[in-house]
Amino acid sequence: MRPWIVWATGLFAYIVAVLDRTTLGVSGLDAADRFSAGPTVLSAFVVLQVIVYASAQVPAGLLLDRFGSKTLIAAGAALMASGQLALAFTESLPAAIGARAVVGLGDAFTFISVLRLVPHWFTPRQVPLVTQLTGICGQLGQVLSAIPFFALLTGLGWTTAYVSVAALGVLSIVLTLLLVHDTPEGRIVEHEATSLREIMVSVKTVWLRPGTRLGFFTHMGTQFSVTVFALMWGVPYLTVAQGLSATVAGTLLTLSVVAAISAGILIGIFTGRRPHRRSWLVLCIIASNAVIWSVVLALPGRAPLWLLVVLIVVISVGGPGSMVGFDFARTFNPRATLGTASGMVNMGGFIASLLVMQIMGVILDAAGGISFEAFRQAWTVQYAVWAFAVVGILITRRKARAVLKADQARMLMEGFDPSPAPR
């Protein structure tokens, strides 16, 4: 029971982090009015947050390997609560952008720190499924932003809504300090102080492992489409371009979370039982994303509601699909550097997301603002990212197989029975 309590507390912190991450996505139109911001400036809010998040992943991973999950989860919650509280009261555009940057920094600490708890508290066979559950259940934060946060925003106003989110962050800090422990022994093994050069060598070593890069490209190709949709452009696209009401748009975002949870459970079971088929599963998820977007964007007018439902369900599978990237990192890296490897993997999808969000903002501005035709052009940016990610997956998968085959040959020579090489 204790492992589940520790994990559930960390999961709550991640749910709050996802709520913090997605609040601006559902309050984008209100933010545009409050700060007199156009599409490009509005996208800069989220893009800066994601830049900070992605840039902090490797430093966060290094800190995680040194200080452990408990410290970083609490620190991340404190940063996010501070940023949301500042955003609640400011009407200054520069201050608001700075507050979102602070939220992004705190967010960077949270997810990989919760993931780091899993191999310490659960058996190897449980790890793939619990990892999936961490990612998909964390998306309940998106439900919180789409329904109760949005209700507070429309009913009681901007300040009340954002103060409420900050209060959840404070609750997360308290629960983390009381209930989370890095390992069943309650502590981690402290690393000795190292020089900057030794840190850089360690980072380079982790990156050069083909499994780390395979995880990076996996995360990139699967995650960015649904992230861009949920984090920034989904609600404006559904309401303005597709003509849906705000209520229906919120319901579709909630459906996205339900779809992700359902798919994540199946993906977790599949990858746990058939680890040698993980990369093929990832490639199928990327292909399905590209196909459904092609169908929607090929229509000369607004899509029927049933097709938008299919779009939401299909792209939502990319969320749990991206978790396979962390499984690759765990397979190819020792526990001592797992935080750094996880941080590198986590950069993939968010680097892609920030580029797509910003480029879409530029295209929307150039096309005269938010409209059906402008969005139709803007969403095509995704195809370049999918192509790049697929090439990266195919190249690094081949190298990862070669490393595993070499390891297996060495184990045979030493008298061990190696497991089948993942494919």
TrEMBL record:
It is found in: Cell membrane. It is a multi-pass membrane protein. GO terms for cellular component: plasma membrane. GO terms for molecular function: transmembrane transporter activity. Its main location: membrane. It comes from the Bacteria. Keywords: Membrane, Transmembrane, Transmembrane helix, Transport. PANTHER family: MAJOR FACILITATOR SUPERFAMILY. This is Sugar phosphate permease. It comes from Mycolicibacterium rhodesiae (strain NBB3).
